[in-house]
Structure formats: C-alpha cells, structure tokens
Amino acid sequence: MTRALIIVDVQNDFCEGGSLAVTGGAAVAAGISLVLGKAGDRWDHVVATKDWHIDPGAHFSAHPDYQDTWPAHCVVGSTGADFHPELATDKIEAVFHKGEHQAAYSGFEGHTEAGETLAAWLRERNVTEVELVGIATDHCVRATALDAKAEGFATTVLLELTAGVAPGTTATALEQFRAASIETTGEPVVSS
C-alpha cells in the first residue's frame, strides 16, 4: 500500500489575521509541521493544495453569505495565497492550484503548474491510500476527501489537524464522511 498525505489550503488568508480566517488555522499549520517532522515513513508522498484565485466570479462578494460567497481571499500574487509560515513545506513534492476563474473547493479540481491533476499525480505514483489535513474541515477538506473517495482512494481525514468554519457545517461534513465510508481520527477545531 502506498500512502500520501494531502495538505489542504494551509494558506495565510485562512489563518488568523487573514481575509477569511478560520479559528485554529495557525495551530493546524504548526501541528502539521510537527507531525511531518516525526512521521518517518508514514507517508510515501506529501502534496498540498492551494486556493489560487485570479477572477473566480461570484465566489467573491462584497456581501458574502459564507456558504457560497466569500470575501476576496487567496488572490494570486498576494501574501494571503502563500502557505502559512508555520507550515513546513520542505517535504511537499507537488502543489495543486485550484479556482483561478471559478469556485473550486476540492484539490481534485486543481493542477500543478505543468497542468497535472491530483488524481493523475497520485495514480502515477501508485498511491492507494490518502490522509487529509488542513483548512477548512467543512469546505475544502470535505470536498477533497469526498473526491478522493470517489476517485477510489482509501481516504482518512485526520480531524485533529483540521479547522472548521462553523459548527453546523462541520457536523454536516462529518456526517458526509461517515456516509461515504471515509475514516476519521480525532476532533476538528471549530469556530463558534
């Protein structure tokens, strides 16, 4: 079995001080780094996703509803789109950018700078199992996990290394994980 870690959207704009901050985001970044430092050979591969917006249309709103529309975030070229400084990036082999000109929640909607998709990259390396961490439990982690399972990967979300936007949507995400037979560990940090 070949296992990969997918680090979802641990970017400045999703951590404290960012334009779309999620409580616990910086702690998630630090926690992932700690686990990566101790992981040894737990993962054969480590990849990451980034929200990477140029003009995502109605995804950005001056009056966001925080469900389908959001304040501007992770704009290409801004410091908000950068990985959070607490996230150790030395083990990340590939970064998949998503959402240049549309809303894109799943890392499986993204691609590398060379245009390779996440599913193709994982299959090329014979990955059969993925573990997910990152931000936000109830949005991009949720969408990426559901797509990973749909793509045929054994999927586990390490909830202790995720942060959710809101209790209600996080609870819904956990129900969706159970319904899709996605394994979980721990409990997410959730804004109240």
From TrEMBL:
Domain Isochorismatase-like: from-to ranges: 4-180
EC number: 3.5.1.19
Involved pathway(s): Cofactor biosynthesis; nicotinate biosynthesis; nicotinate from nicotinamide: step 1/1
Highest taxon above the source species: Bacteria
EC top class named in words: hydrolase
Presence of keyword Transferase: no
Assigned keywords, A-Z: Hydrolase, Metal-binding, Pyridine nucleotide biosynthesis
SUPFAM superfamilies: Isochorismatase-like hydrolases (SSF52499)
Matches recorded under Pfam families: Isochorismatase
Family per similarity comment: Belongs to the isochorismatase family.
Stated name of the protein: nicotinamidase
Organism: Paractinoplanes pyxinae
